[in-house]
């Protein structure tokens, strides 16, 4: 992902013009379950009506019963229906995986959240006012390090075609950030920094002797049985089935951006499904992945920046986990993600009992109005699903 409003939350969130009737499929839903399927169907259709070609959503109740709805098409040229079990790129939601591993290592006494970056990666954060002796692991996790974000990315169709297969090493990504002065002194502000998580991946490797994705697989994916969440490495493709991903760069510039190598392939190259993502967040908040002390630290939040408040009104950020308010009272936990067309929002109540995930296979990112309309429609789906159970933590 790349910086600016949606770019640092979802790769240039661009996607689709309104679809013609001949290119869409009717919304479908599973039999009546714990969350009214008419509401879930209505909410997926509302997202589709914005011009997002494909939408899939899944809600899981405290007793494990599920409601599923899809809307739109999985391919503009084929009219294939959206699959409720389709893969999509996890993108920045993988930051929650990285943060969970770091906190597990902290619980095992293998590192401290107060360790500096320089302690683990000496000399890496240096130059132009950057100082790794002043930046801590906690600040990397919480986006309060001040490290400027400058990941490669594309803003036009030509740039997409030129860059989609480029492979960038963690060292190259970090060097780009070090060419800039910090956004603010460590601990004195908040600004979303993908580079911070590139550095965290390097710290996990130093602390364990293995890359972060292997630690994620062994510590999280296998124990939870997340068999449809897998690391893709530098592969530009996804497992089947999946919807094609589209990005709207401007009027008349709708591009299929399904094939691309994730910029931070070391840490954010995971693909998943709505089922697996639900299970992940339910397990995390239920305390199945972290001891109570580490989970409490993860949920210790600070306000997000004014820019990101436009996307997350009232939003706060912990350690790889976001907190957002519910209209019915209280808050919920989440970490959305997006990577060139695949945009996913999720949410879980404080006890891990009720969860929801909505994945969209187009992103309308050409204007701020389109960005906010898509974000708000998806956020409403999550809000309706979680409020059906009485709200979140208070």
Keywords, please?
single chain, 394 residues, alpha+beta, six-stranded antiparallel β-sheet, four-stranded antiparallel β-sheet, 32% helix, disordered N terminus
Characterise the protein shown here.
- It is a single chain.
- It contains 13 helices and 18 strands.
- The chain has a six-stranded antiparallel beta sheet, with helices on both faces.
- The radius of gyration is 20 Å and the shape is globular.
- Strand 13 and strand 14 form a beta hairpin.
- The protein has 394 residues and is α+β, with helices and mostly antiparallel strands.
Distance between the termini: 33 Å
- Give the helix/strand class: alpha+beta
The counted number of beta strands is: 18
Uncertain runs are 1-33
- What's the alpha carbon Rg, rounded to whole Å? 20 Å
How much of the sequence lies in strands comes to 15-25%
Q: Which shape, going by the Cα principal axes?
A: globular
Q: What characterizes the major β-sheet?
A: 6 strands, antiparallel
- Kindly state the mean pLDDT as a whole number? 91
Strand order of the largest sheet: 1-3-2-17-16-15
How many alpha or pi helices? 13
